[in-house]
């Protein structure tokens, strides 16, 4: 997923500010809530993306939705809306989460399988590779994609192990075409 420079800059600014004020953990939790709320509410996304609704109305609605948040998070959300970047709110929150997790050494792992698999199989896959640091914390996202036909695709950070049936069939196909 491509993330805009805007989201990265806002997230870095927020991280710098929260590190100085010692509020990183509280804001981290709130940014997780922002991502969750924005992911689950299509209506809120439509509202924020509607160009003919002015920034003051959007700020009022955001203030009401996020009223339980700290002043730092509320001010960030207001600033984003004031500058017309409300379409980047979820991305800013996700980038902040990623930056804090990077500092804490949390690995982001994505496992894609053709069908739903058990937790025991997931653990076995994670133990079978050197990419996963068994002593570190990790954030695991499991996706189901029937298009890979079988096997799995494991992505840890910027490295990937493709043990899917589809990629193996494509490799065989290329080998036949070359010979």
From TrEMBL:
Q: Do the record's keywords include Nucleus?
A: no
One MF annotation (Gene Ontology) recorded for this entry: proton-transporting ATP synthase activity, rotational mechanism
| InterPro entries hit by this protein | ATP_synth_OSCP/delta_N_sf (IPR026015), ATPase_OSCP/dsu (IPR000711)
Briefly state the protein's biological role: F(1)F(0) ATP synthase produces ATP from ADP in the presence of a proton or sodium gradient. F-type ATPases consist of two structural domains, F(1) containing the extramembraneous catalytic core and F(0) containing the membrane proton channel, linked together by a central stalk and a peripheral stalk. During catalysis, ATP synthesis in the catalytic domain of F(1) is coupled via a rotary mechanism of the central stalk subunits to proton translocation.
Source species of the chain: Chryseobacterium formosense
Organismal lineage = Bacteria, Pseudomonadati, Bacteroidota, Flavobacteriia, Flavobacteriales
Family indicated by similarity: Belongs to the ATPase delta chain family.
Q: How does it sit in the membrane?
A: Peripheral membrane protein
Just give the chief location class.
Answer: membrane
- Localization annotation: Cell membrane; Membrane
| Keyword list, A-Z | ATP synthesis, Cell membrane, CF(1), Hydrogen ion transport, Ion transport, Membrane, Transport
The record's section on PANTHER family has: ATP SYNTHASE DELTA CHAIN (PTHR11910)
Q: Which gene encodes it?
A: atpH
UniProt key word Transport: yes
Query: Which Pfam families has this protein been placed in?
Result: OSCP
**One Gene Ontology CC term in the entry:** plasma membrane
Q: What is this protein called?
A: ATP synthase subunit delta
């Amino acid at each position: 997923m491509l993330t805009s420079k805007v989201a990265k800059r806002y997230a870095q600014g927020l991280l710098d500010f929260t590190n100085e004020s010692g509020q990183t953990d509280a804001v981290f939790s709130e940014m997780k809530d922002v991502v969750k709320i924005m992911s689950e509410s299509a209506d809120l996304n439509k509202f924020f993306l509607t160009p003919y609704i002015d920034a003051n109305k959007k700020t009022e609605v955001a203030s009401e939705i996020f009223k339980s948040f700290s002043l730092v998070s509320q001010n960030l959300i207001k600033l984003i809306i004031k500058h017309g970047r409300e379409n980047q709110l979820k991305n800013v929150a996700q980038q902040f989460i990623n930056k804090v997790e990077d500092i804490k050494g949390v690995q982001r792992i994505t496992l894609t399988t053709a069908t739903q698999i058990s937790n025991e199989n997931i653990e076995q896959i994670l133990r079978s590779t050197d990419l996963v640091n068994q002593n570190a914390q990790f954030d695991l996202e499991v996706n189901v994609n029937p298009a890979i036909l079988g096997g799995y695709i494991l992505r840890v950070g910027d490295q990937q192990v493709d043990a899917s049936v589809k990629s193996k069939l494509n490799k065989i196909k290329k080998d036949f075409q070359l010979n």
